[in-house]
Amino acid sequence: MKTYYFLGIGGIGMSAIARYLKQMGNNIYGYDRTKTPLTEELEKEGMIITYDDEISSLPKEIDLVVYTPAIPKENLIYNYFLENNYSMKKRSQILGEITKGKKCIAIAGTHGKTTCSTMVAHILHNSEIGCSAFLGGISKNFNSNYVINHNSDYVVVEADEFDRSFLNLTPTIAAITSIDADHLDIYGNKEELKKSFIEFAKQTSEVLFYKFSLDIELNEEMPSQTYSYTIKGYDADYYAVNIRNYKGSYYFDLRTPDKIYYDICLNYGGIHNVENAVLAISIALMCGVSEEDMRKSVSSFSGAHRRFDVRIKRDNFVYIDDYAHHPNEIKAFIESIRFQYPDKKITGVFQPHLYSRTKDFEDEFVKELSKLDEVVLLDIYPARENPIPGVTSKALLYKIDKMDKYYTLKEGLLDLLEALYPEILVTMGAGDISELVPLIEERFKDE
């Protein structure tokens, strides 16, 4: 039995590893700056968590400190560990060690990876093959971000590009869903980001899937089995055709190099999730999942919390929450809603995430948010960053060329939304806007 201390234990990826190590019989301590429903669950599972950045809260004996690169460098506990030469490893290093020697299925991409990895895990879990999984979101089917199966060699993981974390993985099967400019505070430019993804692909031992539209130069260093996929496009190896939307469910045919699978049913919203399903099904079939098991699992897939998360659905009102925090994610999210509700007014609430991302993609945010009928902006969620002069939600809102646009503090959001009387309400962002979701749901549930 060892004692592990998690710095940033409330992170979705950190908590999955903490749960694994706890289940293996170890003592788990941790720090996070905010109490959340997830940290409360971890405490109920026997982990000891503090929310004060104080050295006095530390246990006497710690075998290993696990930390997230997102922890602020001025954090007192972090600096105490550094100054006193504690054994420290990044979350990604631990994940690499856990998956070593296993058949690791790693899903990478600047967006789409959470839904895809959750769907792959769901399909494998409900087949004879089975899997363990470390997910970047809370699966609605598992009601967890962590699944363990000691009888299966497969481990499904979300491969995070932040801080080049995914280079600690050596996947058997890997997928790249997207390579959009992001985390420029780490990479500097998109070309450096792309190089990191190429390096990740080269570390894959057997099979690589990549989105067909990505500009990836294939060479002899790539896995021998490399396949492209897309939602539509007859030049890809795996693609969907004949996509139909019937009463909120999607039906499509999947064309593979070997076979056509007709009338697959996906009961999970968002047309972009048809493309995610193409990838997840392709990986599952590659692992040997039967067609019958595949069809049942795709049909029963409920998604992940905060990924096209339908919270309320009535004839006169729909509320959907999503983690979208990059312009391309917002674009795909809004397009999916327009596809399902072409004649409805869409009111969108967005909390920008990071000053640097807001600055780097200001024009793109303006373009995509302008596609909403009504726009509501909350203050920027700083996460690990300090403010950048001139970069504010008010400055972003000013550039959106619409009459129906609003800025509000979180405290005033519910009253504003009630006054706007929305038809389709959406909330977007990767910050603490998630804390407002149950309050919005409560306010609008009985109308």
Describe what you observe in this structure.
The protein is an alpha/beta fold. It folds into three domains: 89 residues, Rossmann fold (3-Layer(aba) Sandwich); 201 residues, 3-Layer(aba) Sandwich (UDP-N-acetylmuramoyl-L-alanine:D-glutamate ligase), CATH 3.40.1190; 136 residues, Protein-Tyrosine Phosphatase, Chain A (Alpha-Beta Complex). It is 32% helix and 24% strand. It contains 15 helices and 21 strands. The protein is globular and about 60 Å long.
What are the main properties of this structure?
447 residues; alpha/beta; Rossmann fold; UDP-N-acetylmuramoyl-L-alanine:D-glutamate ligase; Protein-Tyrosine Phosphatase, Chain A; ten-stranded mixed beta sheet; six-stranded mixed beta sheet; 15 helices; 21 strands; 32% helix
Mean pLDDT: 92
Bin the helical content.
Answer: 25-40%
Shape: globular
> What is the CA-atom radius of gyration, in angstroms?
22 Å
Number of helices: 15
Per CATH, which architecture of the largest domain? 3-Layer(aba) Sandwich
Supply the number of structural domains.
Answer: 3
Which fold name is given in CATH as the topology of the largest domain?
UDP-N-acetylmuramoyl-L-alanine:D-glutamate ligase
The first-level CATH class name of the largest domain: Alpha Beta
Q: In this structure, how is the largest beta sheet organized?
A: 10 strands, mixed
Beta strand %: 15-25%
Largest sheet strand order: 8-7-9-6-10-11-12-13-14-15
Low-pLDDT stretches are: none
Q: For this structure, what is the CATH homologous superfamily of the largest domain?
A: Mur-like, catalytic domain
The computed structural class is: alpha/beta
Report the strand count.
Answer: 21
